[in-house]
Structure formats: C-alpha cells, structure tokens
C-alpha cells in the first residue's frame, strides 16, 4: 500500500521527560508545543518516515524560575537553538506491535543518532469517522552528548543534575485525506 500522511492530535498527545536531581529524586517536565510529519503505510510501519519538532520554549517543569533557566545559554539556549528535531532513519519490528526506531536527534547545535522503543497502541475511527492511531515511545538522551553540561558538584560528591534524561512520548495521530 501507499504511505498516508498522519497529523498529530496535540490535545491527545504528550512529550514528557525526567532527570535526576541531587542523585536522589527526579524532576519531571513536559513540552507542550510540538508537531510531527508522519508518512506511513499502516500495513508496514517499518517503512514510515517520521520527523518530530519540539519547540523548546514550551518547556514546563511546573516551576517558572527553573523553566526560565532552562531557556538560557546554560541549557537549551533557545535564542540560538529554539527546537529539538528528530528524523527517523531506520525502523525495525522487534515484536508484535513493538518497534525499534532509530533517528537523528538535533539539539543545541549537535546531531546524534538515538534509539527509541515504540509501541503501536492501536487504530480505530473516532466518532466523526476519522482514522486514528496511537503510539508510545520511550528512550533516553545524555545531556553531555549535546553540550548541555551545566551542573554543580554537591558537598556529598555527587552532582546537582543527572546526565541521563528519560523521555516518554505518547502520540495520537489522524490520517489525512
């Protein structure tokens, strides 16, 4: 079959993250503004083309001061690097409804290949007859791989901010045309 275009339904989708704080707790946050271009054949998801763009200015950790700091040159430097972009390069089926999605992540002026575990959550028609699909993805990024090295050493010998950022994505998309 031919590939169809799918548009993300942002009201039913989310991009969340967590990072260790003081090596003893997690700080969680979300990005509220994002879009994706998805071209996929529902019968062969391994051939899909995915590009996801996140507006880094939309970061929300439920703390305005921390969010403002994340936008500065200490972290995202949104004046110079306003977006994170993910572009898929390879999709492999790993089990029934389970996939490994590899792609290029461009963040803070650095592009690196990263891998995410993706689950196909299902498909169906909404009450208005629109075909919808759902996916969830998990993965992690190392801040230091992208030049995001701001930190502080703790009195106990640890660091204030962990290097690993865990990412969780839930997407609902509608088929176009």
Explain what this protein looks like in three dimensions:
The chain has 177 residues and is mostly beta strands. The chain is built from 1 helix and 11 strands, in the order E-E-E-E-E-E-H-E-E-E-E-E. The chain has an 8-stranded antiparallel β-barrel. Strand 9 and strand 10 form a beta hairpin. The longest helix is centred in the middle third of the chain and has 7 residues. The radius of gyration is 17 Å and the shape is elongated. The mean pLDDT is 92.
Please identify the oligomeric state: single chain
Query: Could you tell me the strand content as a percent range?
Result: over 45%
* Helix content, binned percent: under 10%
Strand numbers in spatial order across the main sheet? 1-4-5-7-8-9-10-11
What's the number of extended β-strand segments? 11
Question: What structural category arises from helix and sheet content?
Answer: mainly beta
Shape: elongated
| Unreliable segments of 5+ consecutive residues | none
